[in-house]
Structures are given as C-alpha cells and as structure tokens.
Amino acid sequence: MPERSYTALLRFLRPFRARIAVLVGIIALSSAIAVAPALVGQRLIDHGVLRGDSRAVWLLGGVLAAVGLGQSGLSYVERRYAATVAEDVVLRLRTDLFAHLQRQAPGFFTAARTGAVVSRVHGDVTGVQSVVSSTIPAAVGAVVMLVAAGGAVAVMEWRLVVLVLVLLPLLYLLTSKFTAALRRAGQDVLTSQADLDTLVAERLSPDGTEVIRHYSRPDCELPGFRVRADRVRTVSVRRAGVAAALGAVLTSVIGLTTAVVYVVSGQLVISGALSVGTMVALVALLARLYGPLTALPGVRAQLVAGLVAFDRAREVLDFAPRIAEQPGARRLPRTGTPPSVAFRDVGFGYPSPDALVVPSLAGDIDDGAGRDAVLTAVDFTAEPGSTVGIVGFSGAGKSTLTRLLTRSWDVTDGQVLVDGVDIRRLRLDDVRAAVGVVTQETFLFNDTIRANLLLARPEASTDELVAACQDAWIWPLIEQLPAGLDTVLGDRGLRLSGGERQRLAIARLLLKRPQIVVLDEATSHCDTVTEQRIQESLKPFLRERTCLVIAHRLSTVRAADLILVMRDGRVVERGRHDELVAAGGWYARLHQAQHAGGTGMSTITVDEASTTTETAGPTPTMRSHGVCRDGGVGWGWRG
Ligand SMILES: Nc1ncnc2c1ncn2[C@@H]1O[C@H](COP(=O)(O)OP(=O)(O)OP(=O)(O)O)[C@@H](O)[C@H]1O
Predict the structure, then answer these.
(1) Which end of the chain has less neighbouring CB within 10 Å, N or C?
(2) 47-51, 165-169, 214-218: least confidently modelled range
C-alpha cells in the first residue's frame, strides 16, 4: 500500500481525531476488560473449587457476572459511538465530493459516465465508513487484547509467551502476502460495480427505456446486463476467495497452537509446576486471542478496501476543474444598460474526453486524440441591446459558439469579450449570472414547478412567478393543474411535453433577468401560434438585452440586427435579412425554400461552392435537414 494513501486518509480524518481518540479509548477499555473473566476464573477454581471454599465461589461468580454486564454496556456504547463517528466521516466525504463535482466544468459531465459518478458519491464512500466503524475498532481491539491477554499469559507462565511471540510475526507475514491480492480484488469489485451502475442508470432512465422500446427489445438488453452483473459476481467471489484462503491459513495456525498449549500446560500440571486453575485460565486466554487474531486478516482487508475507496474519492477531489476563475478576476458590473458581446477571431475544438475527467469515471471512451476544430476564426460583435441571429447547418457549431459565452468551455484561440473584457478575466459567477440560456432540450428537476422556477431567482414572489409564466405562455396550463405551481413535475420534467418544458425554461429566463440572452432553438418544440405569442410577449424583455438567437426557422431571426450564417465552424455569410436575401447566397436559397415549402418540411440541396461569401473552404455538397415552413413572425425585439 503506497504511503500516500495512508497519509491522505489520516489528513482527511484529522478533524475527527478527538472523537476517534475517544472511540479508541472505549475500545481499549472494553478489550482490556475482556481478559478479566479468565483471571477471575483461575482464582475461582484454584481458591474456591479446589479448596472447597463455597463463599469464594459465590463471590468470584458475582464478580464474573458484574464483569459480563460491564462488558455488554461498553460494547453497546462502543458500537453506537463508532457508527456515529463513521457516518459523520461519510457525510463530510460525500459533501466534499458533491461540492467538488458541482464545480467541475460541463465537459467533465459530457465525458464521465453518470452511473460511475453516482457510484463514486454513493458506493465508494461506504468503504471509508467501514474503516471507522469496523476497521479501527477491530484493529484497536486486537492490539489491546493481544497486549492484555499476552501480558496475563506472561505473568502466569512465561514459557507460553514464546508461543505468542512466534505466532505474531508469522501471522503478520501471512497477512502481508495476501494484501496485494486483496487490494487488486477490491479495485476490481468497485470498477465492475461502477460499470453495472452506469448501465442500469442509462437503460432504466425514461429516455433509455424509450429508445429501447422503439429500436430494440427489453430482452435484448439482458445479455449486456448479465455480462456486467456476472463480472461483479466473479470479482466479488475472487475477493472473498482471497480473504477466505487467508482466514483458513490463520485458523490452521491457531488450531495447531491450541494443541501445543494444551500439551505443554497439561505436562506442567502433571509435573506440579502449574495449577489446574492456571491451565484453564491459559486456555481461556488463548481462546480470547483467537478473535483478534482471526480478525487481523479482516482488518487488513477492510483497511485495504477502505483505502482503495478513499483513493477513488480522492482521485475525484484532486481533479481540478478545467474552467476556473483567474486570481484577481474582475467583477462584471450589473448596470442598467446591456453589455456588448464580441467574438474575436475565435477558434475552438472539443478536447478528448480523457482530458476532461478522471480515467476511472470515463471508461473506455476514446483513443486519446483531440477532436478537430469545431469553430475557426469566428469574429463578430453584438452591440449593446442588439440581436444577432445565427443560422446554419446542423453541426455547424452554432450551439458551441454560445457555450463559449457562458464559459462552459474556454476558447482555444482568440477571445470572447463582454463589454470589451475577455470573459476569462471576469468572475465566473458574474459571467454565468449575466447570461441566460434557453436551449432546445429543457431539463427540469423532479420537484415542483415553483422550485424549478425559483432556481433562477430564489427570492421571487408568487406574483412574479405567475407573471413570468404568463409571459412565457405556460400559465394557462399551470392554472389548470390541481396543485398549480406546487405540482411535482416527475423525473426530469418528463410529465410535460417538449413545448411545455421549453415554455417553463423561458419563464425561468424571465425570472433570471440576465443582461445577455441566448435562445438556442428555444421555441422549436412549440407550435407556430404559441411561438408567435411568446415572441410578442417577450419583445419588451428582449429589447433591453443583448441577444444571440439560434434558429433553423429563418422567420425567427429575420428582424435581427445581424445574421450570421455558419458552416463547418466558420461564418460564411453575414448581414441583415434583406441584405442576405439580396446577396443570393445560401441564406437566400434557404429563405426561398422555406417560403416555397407548402408542407413546412421542404428539404433543399445546397451547393456550398456558390454560397460562401466570406471564407473559402472545402466545398462539399451538403443537404440541410428538414426546415419548417416560415410561419412565425420572428423575435420582434425592435417592436
Ligand atoms: N461535448 C462535445 N464533445 C465533442 N464534440 C462535440 C461536443 N458537442 C458538440 N460537438 C461537436 O461539435 C460540432 C458542433 O456542434 P454544435 O452543437 O455546436 O452544432 P450546432 O450547429 O448547434 O448543431 P444543431 O443545429 O444540430 O444543434 C458537431 O460536430 C458536434 O458533433
């Protein structure tokens, strides 16, 4: 076991040292008292039974009963106290882990397996708990018992101490031999359990079960589950096998020792060098030693398992968040006027997953290579209070661009500026508070509508919640629900339709009142009439903010002050709606196609070679995905 693990665990346990010391004291007392019955029993036989002293028998019998009661009381206190301290240790470790995980950049969670993260916070920490609740009591108990019982044996018959002295190093050597194997087996168990948790979390999630229903069959999933569950079984059995082998070896050693003690002490009684009471006491003391001695392999195994578990928690705690605030970061003042947003020659590529997360959370996901550039030389300015519309092919990098504005990721090249300041030099909380985002997919917590809305502004009054819901056109639905705002939404809000979830997300945005608004296909799940209503009611809100609006429906961005057309991570056209239509490029073609498409789902083929007006690049023929009919009125921020 590397020294570092012990040291780190001791450092972590430092705040609990006083309570652990009290626990050790209780255990030591309890273990020392456990030797007393053998000593009292010796006197009872030698001075009471063999001398025919009935009074001494009664008296010493009473002492034995009192010792027994004392032992049981101490045992109760010891177990209860050990459990309390252990649970407090786990509470601290879990809280540290949860808080640290929350500070991780979004990239961490795109690369980590959810089940493995849950397993780390939930399962692995119990290994540390058992160090306090079982390992420390067993270890301290064993040591104190060895000293007390060994001391008593030495006083009664020093020749038998030689036996104990031979036994101890032998047992230590044996347990050391098994430690490495136990450690490896412990690691395998935790890893395979995390794999199984990941599969269960994914396959039994609402989305996962739906995909399986549509594209597969539940029984087709069973073999994959069995493989992983079987691996847990195999490695658990292997770990138990190693521990059992160690236990068997130790039991044999102890069995042989017992025989030796009986023969040696029996010979001493025959020769008159030892009393019968002493022989019985020696045998009883030896029996007392069996417990701690056979517990020793368990202690080692538990300690190894605890250290493995702690190492896994520490691995996460030591993983520095990828996006961090610079020392001396500046505040972003929250003034009445909206800030400008500028992208200066921005380049970005998603890092490889193994750079984003600790390997044991990532699993076998990547060859280690980073991805190609997703954004190249993106350069534009959104003036204060203006709106920039962003359109382009699927996968062109539109959402990535907005993720750079919230510092979900940091640019690889260039700068993102808010009011002329590089956002990496601003306080992280200020940047995230300044930007409000509504995306295509809305995540809602399994909590009440009220709680989901209050995330954006905890101090908001009920009237403010209602007003935000009215502006987002979700109030008519909430009003009809028996519990209204206090209705619980179900897992991830899946009891609402996609459009209803988006409208709640817009209400959340209204409550947040950010200075910069990002709408990334924010009403894509809403019908055209609802979208128009929302756009109308949001006009005053958006007019006072700097907005980036991503849309496939051109009607959504036609009134923007600046429209960027993106392809392959580059801005290939830019201008206002009329200018772009007049330019006759890709935007004009798409505009034409959306007007012509009577079904609302016309599909166009665009020869990119004829549409690139800004940046020359590869010119493959690309097929846009379905586009909706131009039925909306656009985000009317200009009134
Ligand atoms: N977390 C990620 N890790 C690696 N690559 C990613 C990640 N997120 C997106 N990408 C890749 O980056 C590219 C741009 O994705 P992005 O989501 O920005 O496209 P988009 O233009 O918003 O597409 P859409 O219109 O379909 O939403 C895509 O090729 C995508 O596969």
Answers:
(1) C
(2) 214-218
- Distance between Cα 395 and ligand 1 center (Å): 5
- Give SS3 for 179: helix
Task: Confirm whether 614 is domain-assigned.
Answer: yes
Q: Which of 320, 323, 344, 501 is nearest to 406 (CA)?
A: 323
C-alpha 623/C-alpha 605 separation (Å) is: 5
Give, in order, the Cα–Cα distances in Å from 111 to each of 116, 117, 364, 371.
11, 11, 10, 13
Atom of ligand 1 nearest to the CA of 106: 1
How deeply is 569 buried, as exposed, middle or buried, from its count of CB atoms within 10 A (0-12, 13-18, 19+)? Answer: buried
Position 55 scores a pLDDT of 92
In whole angstroms, give the CA distance from residue 56 to residue 40: 11
631 part of a folded domain: no
Enumerate residues lining ligand 1, CB below 6 A: 110, 350, 371, 374, 392, 394-400
**pTM to 2 decimals?**
0.71
Residue 329 lies in a domain: no
Q: Domain count of the chain?
A: 2
User: What ipTM was reported for this prediction?
Assistant: 0.96
Task: State the helix-helix crossing angle for 161-203 and 206-215, rounded to 10 degrees.
Answer: 60
* pLDDT bracket for residue 387 (50, 70, 90): very high
CATH number at residue 478: 3.40.50.300
DSSP one-letter code for 409? S
- Segments forming the whole domain that contains residue 597: 341-351+373-623
Q: 573-587 pLDDT, tens per residue?
A: 999 999 999 988 888
| Cα(146) to centroid(ligand 1), Å | 64
Same-domain check for residues 140 and 105: yes
The answer to whether the CB of 184 falls within 8 A of the CB of 311 is no
The C-alpha torsion from 131 through 133 and 135 to 136, rounded to 10°, is: 100
Report the percentage of the chain scoring pLDDT > 70.
87
pLDDT exceeds cutoff 90 at 358: no
Instruction: Indicate which residue's Cα is closest to atom 27 of ligand 1.
Output: 394
Nearest CA to ligand 1 atom 10: 350
* Pair 301, 377 in one domain: no
Give me the chain's average pLDDT, please.
81
Rounded Cα gap, residues 171 and 50, in angstroms:
37
